[in-house]
Amino acid sequence: MQVVVPFDPQSPKTRLAGVLDPTERKRFARAMLRDVLDAITATGMAPTVLSTATLDIDAETRLDERPLTSAVNAALEDAGSTPVAVVMADLALATPAALSELFETEDDIVLARGIGGGTNALVARHPDFRVDYHGASYRDHHAVADAVGASTAEIDSYRLGMDIDEPEDLAELLLHGDGHAARWLRTAGVRLVEEQGRVSVGREPIPVTTTAESDAADD
Amino acid sequence: MQVVVPFDPQSPKTRLAGVLDPTERKRFARAMLRDVLDAITATGMAPTVLSTATLDIDAETRLDERPLTSAVNAALEDAGSTPVAVVMADLALATPAALSELFETEDDIVLARGIGGGTNALVARHPDFRVDYHGASYRDHHAVADAVGASTAEIDSYRLGMDIDEPEDLAELLLHGDGHAARWLRTAGVRLVEEQGRVSVGREPIPVTTTAESDAADD
């Protein structure tokens, strides 16, 4: 099985602009990527980063400047009859256990839903399956699987379901994460704020040298 | 094992006020409760509704007017050495499979996280464990379990993690639900709205007789 992790190192995580500046967003996205690659590697698989730009990272990298859907479909086509897993680079809560269940479920198409209708991870073992990540892709991927006559399984995982895109997602990472990205956030002064209902995040004023200027947290 | 489902029939789901009026919120909360009770029953367990007011429903009901935390702790105390499961009444995406994993995991304390720091479901098999649902209860429940020397397990379930509290949660129900509550929402004209990023919901103008005035959708 090929395990592909699409990644855009250039302007990642724009929806976090209210909490992190552009340089910080790049560092944070990179820390999440490392968590995802570590979790995949811990399952025994060797991930390939499908990057829109050159990337200095200790993992196999394939350059593809096209948008996400086109790049992933090219990877599916190139793979021929080899199964392909596609795991998003912002699943910073992913664990080896959750990913193993994804990889080991033996249907033609295995889907892990993301909050808000996305498809956070999938495995494709059918030559005619193609992705379309626009809109509510989870439903669309079910429909595509049905249309090509592929059997489908769903993975019920909170850890794979929480992609980190919006400021409130940072609370999930602070609550349940213990990897590079969670440590980076804590060092950057992002803190849980408890109010009525669900927790959110705020940011403490901290010395400049411990945040954007430094890689200290990115260890 | 006792399976307790706390429920407030009087003024439920106030955070949905932007989408549903008070009468609709009561009907919707009731439809979600039915989904939760159905899923529990399908695991072979017999749920008890722990209700703050009298309730006409086809399930065993125990009246306790106290706030959630006090009522659940009284149930834990009364149970003595009998294991107790506590399942929130708004887990309209819960499946028998996800609940079976919760019930069958054999640690002293088994926790299913909810989005935003909550504890959506738990099993307690330790006489000294007590709940506190205020704030980020998931962390607090871990700490309580540690303090009383109880072993703890986490359930990794998206379906148990999505309690339906906020308008954006309705999108999850429309995307992934097929029970009473999802049907009620669809009949009430609540629809998915696809924009950039995550899907949200909107509401169609529909004839009055098919919504709050009628129980037709609540079947």
TrEMBL record, chains A, B:
Record field: catalytic activity: (2S)-2-phospholactate + GTP + H(+) = (2S)-lactyl-2-diphospho-5'-guanosine + diphosphate
A Pfam short name: CofC
Enzyme class name: transferase
GO molecular function: GTP binding; phospholactate guanylyltransferase activity
Enzyme Commission no: 2.7.7.68
UniProt-listed InterPro entries: CofC, Nucleotide-diphossugar_trans
Pathway linked to the protein: Cofactor biosynthesis; coenzyme F420 biosynthesis
GO BP annotation list: F420-0 metabolic process
Keywords of this entry: GTP-binding, Nucleotide-binding, Nucleotidyltransferase, Transferase
Description of how the protein assembles with itself and partners: Homodimer.
Family to which this protein belongs: Belongs to the CofC family.
NCBIfam families xrefs: F420_cofC
Function: Guanylyltransferase that catalyzes the activation of (2S)-2-phospholactate (2-PL) as (2S)-lactyl-2-diphospho-5'-guanosine, via the condensation of 2-PL with GTP. It is involved in the biosynthesis of coenzyme F420, a hydride carrier cofactor.
Protein name: 2-phospho-L-lactate guanylyltransferase
Gene: cofC
